[in-house]
Amino acid sequence: xxxxxxxxxxxxxxxxxxxxxxxxxxxxxxxxxxxxxxxxxxxxxxxxxxxxxxxxxxxxxxxxxxxxxxxxxxxxxxxxxxxxxxxxxxxxxxxxxxxxxxxxxxxxxxxxxxxxxxxxxxxxxxxxxxxxxxxxxxxxxxxxxxxxxxxxxxxxxxxxxxxxxxxxxxxxxxxxxxxxxxxxxxxxxxxxxxxxxxxxxxxxxxxxxxxxxxxxxxxxxxxxxxxxxxxxxxxxxxxxxxxxxxx
Length: 247
Known about the structure:
The chain is mainly beta. It has helices at 3-12, 227-241; strands at residues 17-19, 28-39, 57-68, 74-76, 85-101, 106-113, 124-125, 131-138, 153-163, 169-177, 186-194, 200-210, 213-218.
């Protein structure tokens, strides 16, 4: 499948017309990441977090996104459909890859989109777990309905990463335009009119992005803690997974 086709399918699934155009500087989606300490191989947050990933823990990465112009602002898009101007109504879609640096090999689980944003896939980790490709999220607009106008959109995507090696370092995960997107990675929704029944009509407008990253510090193993202890800690995490409740 051609790169541009993949990106268009994200918003096209919502029954929208996609408008490809040169991006104006003020129109963009901002990606912001954070992490929460969880028990390894679960989605259960640590009761007393210390800001470090200790042995037997993992990191739940969470993505929030915001966009400009604000909802209700007037903006332009390339016709057709006419008239080429409309009102910003909400976030349309996102499509990105996530790459880790500084020995980011590990295991991913509990990758999921936020409620109401489950268009496209939640991403595919590479063989080493150091990257996740083709992470997508977007909203479907039923006929006669309006989009979710939330800005920011909190927890639009999350995933749990457990390091393959517990050693003192800081792993950095950074987002980029999905390699499969053809450069069409982020969109906002513009209301441009009504149909014959008076139902609102929307167009998806491709915009630029301010890409985010997050630093995940790994703790220094305690003196005398070796590979055997690390293995035991991970085994405990795997057993806990059977009892984990998704966030």
